[in-house]
Amino acid sequence: MLNKLMRVMQEEKTRDVAFAVGGMGAMLTGSKLVSLGLFAKGFQGLEKQWRERHPEFTGGWKERWKAAAEFYESTHQNPANRVLHMVGIPMIVGGAVGLLATPAFSPPWLLSAGSFAAGWALNIAGHTAFERNAPAFAEDPLSFVAGPVWDLQQLRKGGLKAAFRKAAEPTAPASA
What is the pTM of this model? Predict the structure, then answer.
């Protein structure tokens, strides 16, 4: 088992995703600096890999942001997944702020931990049950920021009511 884990962790992408996810998980232990360090290490590695996979990319921050937002949009097409993200992402962001800003294991911290975990559960359910793809951050680390920005834009376009309505629409059968 340990040998298999060591082989998997030698793969750069797997290792960097593990660092980013481990950093988020470490927030639930109250280890703020450890969690931020792990997350930063994973984010840095994933961004380096993104740039290696896109040698044609020569733009600055504005162009990089545009590429990240377009990628995020392309990986979130299912209406039910969009609704789950519109609910889950604010829970994650609010929970993360609370986990970092309040004393570990205090009542506000515990509430933040519940929000953070529930938000991630909604997002993972959306990708597993509806979108059937991996979370965008595994391919593009700027999705950690693009997600909340996308969420805010969707809320400004019509809010949850419009998203729920679209998710409830029957899907048309595929044409031959």
Answer: 0.86
